[in-house]
Design brief:
The chain has 6 helices and 13 strands. A hairpin with a 2-residue loop joins strand 2 and strand 3. It has 2 domains: 1-104, 3-Layer(aba) Sandwich (Aminopeptidase), CATH 3.40.630.30; 173-260, no CATH class. It has a 7-stranded mixed β-sheet with strand order 1-2-3-4-5-7-6, with helices on both faces. Strands 8-11-13-12 form a 4-stranded mixed β-sheet, with helices on one face. Strands 9-10 form a two-stranded antiparallel ribbon. The longest helix has 20 residues, at 220-239. It has helices spanning 12-26, 34-41, 89-103, 118-127, 212-218, 220-239, and strands spanning 5-8, 46-52, 55-67, 70-80, 108-113, 131-136, 155-161, 176-178, 180-185, 188-194, 203-209, 243-248, 254-260. The protein is α+β, with helices and mostly antiparallel strands. It starts with a strand and ends with a strand.
């Protein structure tokens, strides 16, 4: 039996719990205030809470977005209590978000996430089957909360088509070209150089460290190298028409984004 109840949050007392939960995660920085959440709910927004015996242990919040003729849900925030992360709760909340979004007539959900967060990439791309075609350098400016502290806030824009085929899209290894080299430095993966990128290759793989937070704590310079090299490689790839459509986990110190030109 699932120990968590995942449901929509509309009660004002529970919305206040969401505000307090944000404060615990982000130390009262970069959070969404109570009045904004209320206004969003009255205008197409969705708040989802995960509860364990009435304790809020996770939440997911989105508001309506619009671009040209397309309306979509912007999934702005999601967090899970630290002690129970990596247990699949984030995935379950996204599934609930999809269910509620479809009932409201949304066809797509979009959100940003840090390209250096391997855990989030696995959820967003491997499990939910979202794709990425857009890179935002330093999207929110310098954020000094515990999770983001110090590095420029570069972000991927993930697009989750709620009607898309969810099949695995990772091609055969012989079809994939490397375009970023890396090596181990004192038990940490460190990027070396960006190789030449051309449209002659259908697939490229780009490494991302499995634990950027450990690297930031031990050697901030290496963390910065990852930030700026990945910024450059994805800028070039997206300008040439590639997009991220797969994520490959490994038994090494890095995982890989797979980009496609087809």
């Amino acid at each position: 039996m699932d120990p968590y109840v995942i449901r929509e949050v509309t009660d004002k007392k529970e919305i206040q719990k969401v505000v307090e939960f944000q404060d615990l995660i982000w130390n009262k920085k970069n959070t969404t205030p109570f009045p904004f959440l209320i206004a969003s709910l009255h205008n197409g927004g969705i708040i989802i809470g995960a509860f364990s015996n009435e304790e809020l242990v996770g939440f997911c919040y989105g508001f309506p977005g619009f671009d040209s003729s397309e309306v979509y849900l912007v999934s702005h925030m999601m967090a899970v209590k630290q002690q129970i992360r990596d247990g699949g709760l984030g995935y379950k909340m996204k599934v609930k978000q999809k269910e509620l979004a479809l009932k409201r007539g949304y066809k797509k959900i979009m959100w940003t996430f840090d390209p250096l967060e391997s855990r989030n990439a696995y959820l967003n791309i491997s499990k939910l089957r979202g794709i990425v075609k857009t890179y935002y350098p330093n999207h929110y400016g310098i954020m000094n909360d515990e999770l983001n502290g110090g590095l420029p806030s570069d972000r991927f824009l993930l697009e989750w088509d709620l009607y898309a085929n969810s099949a695995d899209n990772i091609p055969a290894e012989e079809q994939i070209q490397f375009c970023v080299s890396w090596k181990m430095v004192e038990d940490m993966p460190s990027p070396l150089a960006l190789e030449i990128i051309s449209n002659q290759c259908d697939y490229y793989k780009i490494p991302v460290p499995k634990d950027i937070h450990m690297i930031k704590e031990r050697d901030f310079v290496i963390a910065e190298k990852w930030r700026f090299l990945l910024r450059e490689v994805f800028k070039q790839l997206f300008e040439k028409g590639y997009f991220v459509n797969s994520f490959q986990t490994t038994n090494k110190a890095v995982n890989y984004y797979i980009v496609s030109f087809v």
